[in-house]
Design goal:
Layout: E1 5-9, E2 15-17, H1 20-30, E3 33-38, E4 45-49, H2 50-61, H3 68-80, E5 82-85, E6 91-93, H4 96-102, E7 107-112, E8 117-121, H5 122-138, H6 145-149
Antiparallel strand pairs: 1-7, 2-6, 3-4, 3-5, 4-8, 7-8
Length: 152
């Protein structure tokens, strides 16, 4: 399970370095095999251990290529999906199209989201968090049933 927000850097070759605390889990669970794709709702990337991504692919394979909405989802998620392996130093290469989609430059936030990571441009992440906090503070939304039952 991946959690917390980690400030990391993108090197000149387009690589990120996975924080040490996640590396052994990734090596144990997927031999460092990762898949990165775009988030279709937000300007960030989604980085999955290969077994988690394979579950997404199975769901995508069950969508109809004849339905334009389902086909669009397949096209975007699969079209941008890039498989790679974490090297011995914990680095992972992000392709140019992926970096462009999320507007990634030098400073990045790697955010654990249980079964995957989100990769954000650091400024965009801080802006998103501020917006999320403001929405929660104003409580100007109708909570779902799951949110009504959620406590922490």
């Amino acid at each position: 399970m991946f959690r917390s927000a980690n400030a990391i850097n993108l090197d000149v070759k387009g690589r990120i370095t996975i924080p040490t605390r996640y590396r052994q889990t990734l090596l144990d669970d997927c031999q460092g095999q990762l898949v990165c794709t775009i988030d279709i709702k937000q300007p960030c990337l989604l980085l999955y251990p290969l077994p988690e991504w394979e579950e997404i692919e199975l769901k995508l394979s069950q969508l109809s290529s004849m339905n334009p909405h389902e086909r669009r989802m397949q096209r975007l998620l699969l079209g941008y999906a890039t498989e790679g392996e974490m090297d011995k130093n914990g680095r992972f290469l992000l392709s140019s199209p992926l970096r462009q989609h999320a507007g990634l430059d030098k400073q990045i936030m790697l955010v654990g989201q249980m079964n995957k990571f989100e990769l954000w441009d650091a400024d965009e992440w801080h802006k998103q968090i501020s917006e999320d906090k403001e929405i929660e503070k104003l409580a100007n939304f109708e909570p779902t049933e799951r949110l009504q039952e959620f406590s922490y």
